[in-house]
Design a protein that fits this description.
The chain has 2 domains: 70 residues, no CATH class; 182 residues, Glycoside hydrolase/deacetylase (TIM Barrel, Alpha-Beta Barrel), CATH 3.20.20.370. The chain has 12 helices and 12 strands.
């Protein structure tokens, strides 16, 4: 009898185990655990596959910065793709596809402005529906408060390229420009023709102005605008060695000739384009016509930004722009 005892114990264990599995409470518990913990296979999920398929319509490749044969240095532009996993997480709550819940991410280009050789920059990327107002300052202090008030009223930031000698005499205006959040660039020290001075003199002009502006604002400029747009390769090289980009323009207000504000506005609006640098000065024409010029640019759906923003690689708005639209 004793030698059959292990056999009976084994049979008893099987019966107990079977009853446990047959217990309706046990079965319900196990079923509930399975229903909670079992992951949904995204490979078989229709919503996930729909997002994955439609994501291809929004994909845009990154565009490298380049040296253009006409426009010289041109910034790159980030690529765009749909983050399928994050989009799925947001839509899964609703259980259906919703374009407004797509999650996008930007992909930087492989080549940026800083990777390119020393060349001037005339414009931003043509796919950016933005323009920059570049205000060269070596005189016109009487008009600057009015211009600043207009920019503030219109919630617009501009880029002021300031001459060092002028900045020394008008620290209060430089501080006012800086405190209102505008970009401040370098416009040489005393407005020389930089095409006709040595590289050593060019360096002196730029460095001296950088020190003055930094002493007033606390920041060293990274943008340089040669007076009258006059430069040579040596000037560009010096600015590059100082960690600065040389900025020119594609649209000129010709405000220094004191045209009627309506004439200035017409000239600009006929030539303005995506990525434009619009050159102006603190003149009576600009003081009188700037507000209307800004309004007309906004009517054309241009976003008015600083040089810094126009030259970065970020896309401004891309959420619902399918590849076929751009």
């Amino acid at each position: 009898m004793r030698r059959f005892m292990p056999f009976f114990v084994f049979i008893g264990m099987i019966i107990v185990s079977y009853q446990a599995f047959e217990n309706p409470f046990t079965n319900d518990y196990i079923a509930s655990i399975k229903s909670v913990s079992a992951p949904v296979s995204t490979d078989q999920d229709e919503l996930y596959q729909e997002i994955k398929t439609k994501a291809e319509d929004y994909a845009k490749p990154a565009q490298d910065a380049q040296v253009h044969k006409v426009w010289k240095k041109m910034p790159g532009l980030n690529g765009v793709r749909v983050n399928v996993e994050e989009s799925y997480k947001k839509m899964r709550k609703q259980g259906e596809y919703n374009e407004d819940l797509l999650v996008f991410e930007q992909i930087p280009p492989e080549v940026s402005l800083e990777d390119l050789p020393a060349e001037p920059i005339y414009r931003g990327h043509p796919d950016k529906e933005m323009v920059a107002l570049n205000i060269n300052v070596s005189w016109g202090e009487d008009y600057i408060p009015t211009i600043l008030n207009i920019l503030k009223k219109q919630n617009v930031k501009a880029t002021f390229f300031i001459e060092g000698k002028w900045a020394n005499k008008h620290e209060d205006l430089v501080k006012m420009i800086d405190e209102q959040g505008h970009d401040i660039g370098n416009h040489a020290y005393n407005h020389p023709d930089m095409n006709n001075i040595s590289a050593e003199k060019s360096r002196e002009q730029i460095e001296k102005t950088n020190k003055i502006l930094e002493s007033i604002t606390g920041d060293q400029p990274t943008w340089f605008a040669p007076p009258s747009g006059s430069f040579n390769k040596g000037v560009i090289k010096v600015a590059d060695e100082l960690g600065m980009e040389t900025i020119l323009w594609t649209v000129d207000t010709v405000d220094w000739k004191k045209p009627a504000p309506s004439v200035m506005i017409k000239r600009v609006m006929e030539k303005v384009h995506n990525g434009a640098f619009v050159l102006m000065h603190p003149t009576s024409t600009v003081a009188e016509g700037l507000n209307d010029l800004i309004l007309k640019m906004k009517e054309k759906e241009y976003k008015i930004v600083t040089v810094t923003t126009l030259l970065d690689e970020e896309r401004d708005s891309f959420k619902t722009q399918k590849q076929t639209n751009k």
